[in-house]
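Box 3.1 A note on notation
Throughout this textbook, protein chains are presented in two layers. The first layer is the amino acid sequence; the second is a token string describing backbone geometry. Keep the layers aligned when reading.
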Amino acid sequence: MEAHYKEIIRRALDEDIRTGDVTTQAVIPDSVMGKGKFLVKANGVIAGLNVTKSVFEMIDNQIGFKVLIPDGAKVKVGDFVAEVEGKASSILTAERTALNFLQRMSGIATLTYKFVEEISHTKVKILDTRKTVPGLRLLEKEAVRLGGGKNHRIGLFDMFLIKDNHIEIAGSITNAVNACRNFQQKNNSNLKIEVETKNLDEVSEALSCNVEIIMLDNFNTDRMRKAVELINGKCLVEASGNINIDNVKEVAETGVDFISVGALTHSVKALDISLEVELKK
């Protein structure tokens, strides 16, 4: 697991435990052993078991953790996805943080899978966005991948994405693209350039700048088809803005290459999963 993932987990445990789990310390002797199973209570896609395992290991490196159904697999009500065994006190202290990660990541993977399945008859890829919980982006984007989606850019550092505010301040799409080209030359950069457009005139201008990707922001499907026809394979095309599970199929059928969906991470419902713990006899 990446070091950054472990830092995310470490911060989450510190947030929850601070000076100690006083209830468990008062009620559960260290000598008591326990075992638990993670029970799925809603159909979906499981994601985050590697993170869940690390939560327990950070609390107690003597805890045993066994994956029963792997990350990325479809699960149904009643499935057990993992088992944990060791000191009962350690299991209870780690429980909430482990479930928080597992439930949220599985919710993201589940929603992503629904979008991917809805457009499976096309070549279109579902992308995530930067609309993530601060500090959890890498985990949330991993969950998108496990649900069958693709990661867009991870952050501001790995791609040029010229948005409407950049264009407004630069004066035009052409000015903004030229500035990015100059930056590339000065910094020996080969990062891709994408331009957000809001009408067909802007699509034409972006196309004339030979950018790698053109984003169609809040286009209706008729205008998307016209834009795709105008672009005619000269660059990749991303559709974005107000796309949901009800209209994603229609959007995909316009011929775009990518559809970005902010809701995958900013409006997701956690998958219902519980940890059933008992004494180990």
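The chain is about 45% helix and 20% strand. Residues 88-118 form the longest helix (31 residues).
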